[in-house]
């Protein structure tokens, strides 16, 4: 038997751990072969691949990024290429495909499954927004990196009596912002789930200063938006892949908060950006990614296609891809309230 594997979408700490686990379980436990498609779905469309054996994945467990590379492919181009995809998989003797990725990659996996191509998905995203799994690998690493950065920014904000706005990733959800903000003792956190009123944000800052504090740290997810009519806001644009390209919430907040608080209050920004994606995955993410990859191989062994490996409690289980891609996993309102109450 031969398994194909690809890593799609944005890179994420833990991808190499999945690749390693798939190769080791497939080759050592079952005597199968593994083909890695280069640069995500582009590798399938262009028939660009490499054979993966245990020696090739030795030492990659702690590496960030993905040894297979990744890319984004326009969904329309992918759906119009079903015959090409079938041909490439047949030509290379691929009996089952394991796509590792986030929302877009898993949507494509579900679509392939609906066309009777044997697929088992593995969820990946630092945003933690894939439904039907408690946590996705990469999230823990991103939170650790953001927490460390916010910890460091506290001291410089205090030294210079500044309002420090820290922009973290989170296109549609505020998991990173809330967890890192709470862990690092931020004073306010803005998330996509709850549009903010800039007047209330500034009033909260002003109350802090009147109580004798000389600085403040505000964490904003990149997808945070103001409530309609509360401030001028550039929403950015949508790119060719259907993803929103943000105009920079931290910079827009900086301008508006500076205007409202006055020239005497120094307001600065730090955008963490791709720092949260790169580098060595945490031990938790290495273990979780390995378990998810290993469970995907077991699903192939059992012929359980159209499924995704997922963390449910402490166990790795299989859930239907159709359920996993039906909606994004946003932060529930009661969880937002609970975490914000602890800031």
From TrEMBL:
Site (Important for substrate specificity): 104
Gene Ontology biological-process entries: canonical glycolysis; fructose 1,6-bisphosphate metabolic process; fructose 6-phosphate metabolic process
Annotated metabolic or biological route of this protein: Carbohydrate degradation; glycolysis; D-glyceraldehyde 3-phosphate and glycerone phosphate from D-glucose: step 3/4
Molecular-function annotations in GO: 6-phosphofructokinase activity; AMP binding; ATP binding; diphosphate-fructose-6-phosphate 1-phosphotransferase activity; fructose-6-phosphate binding; identical protein binding; metal ion binding; monosaccharide binding
Pfam families noted in UniProt: PFK (PF00365)
Transmembrane region(s): none
Binding site for ATP: 10, 72-73, 102-105
Any one cellular-component term (Gene Ontology): 6-phosphofructokinase complex
Name by which UniProt lists this protein: ATP-dependent 6-phosphofructokinase
Originating species: Actinocatenispora rupis
Gene transcribed to yield this protein: pfkA3
């Amino acid at each position: 038997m031969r398994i194909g594997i690809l890593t799609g979408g944005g890179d994420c700490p833990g991808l190499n751990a999945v690749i390693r686990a798939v190769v080791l379980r497939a080759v050592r436990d079952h005597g199968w072969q593994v083909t890695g498609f280069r640069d995500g779905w582009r590798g399938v469309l262009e028939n660009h691949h490499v054979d993966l054996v245990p020696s090739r994945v030795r030492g990659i467990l702690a590496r960030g990024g993905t040894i297979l590379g990744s890319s984004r492919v326009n969904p329309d181009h992918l759906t119009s290429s079903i015959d090409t995809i079938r041909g490439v998989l047949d030509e290379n003797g691929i009996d089952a495909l394991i796509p590792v990725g986030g929302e877009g990659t898993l949507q494509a996996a579900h679509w392939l499954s609906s066309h009777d191509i044997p697929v088992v998905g593995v969820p990946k995203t630092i945003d933690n927004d894939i439904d039907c799994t408690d946590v996705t690998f990469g999230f823990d690493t991103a939170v650790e990196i953001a927490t460390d950065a916010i910890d460091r920014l506290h001291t410089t904000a205090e030294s210079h009596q500044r309002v420090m706005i820290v922009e973290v990733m989170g296109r549609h959800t505020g998991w990173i912002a809330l967890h890192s903000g709470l862990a690092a003792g931020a004073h306010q956190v803005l998330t996509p789930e709850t549009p903010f009123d800039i007047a209330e944000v500034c009033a909260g800052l002003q109350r802090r200063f009147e109580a004798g504090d000389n600085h403040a740290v505000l964490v904003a997810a990149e997808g945070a938006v103001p409530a309609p009519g509360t401030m001028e806001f550039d929403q950015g644009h949508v790119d060719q892949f259907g993803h929103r390209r943000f105009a920079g919430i931290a910079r827009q907040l900086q301008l508006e908060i500076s205007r409202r608080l006055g020239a005497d209050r120094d307001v600065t920004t730090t955008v963490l950006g791709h720092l949260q994606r790169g580098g060595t995955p945490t031990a938790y993410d290495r273990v979780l990614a390995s378990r998810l990859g290993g469970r995907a191989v077991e699903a192939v062994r059992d012929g359980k296609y159209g499924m995704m490996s997922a963390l449910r409690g402490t166990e790795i289980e299989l859930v239907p891809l159709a359920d996993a891609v039906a909606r994004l996993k946003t932060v529930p309102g009661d969880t937002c309230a609970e975490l914000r109450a602890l800031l």
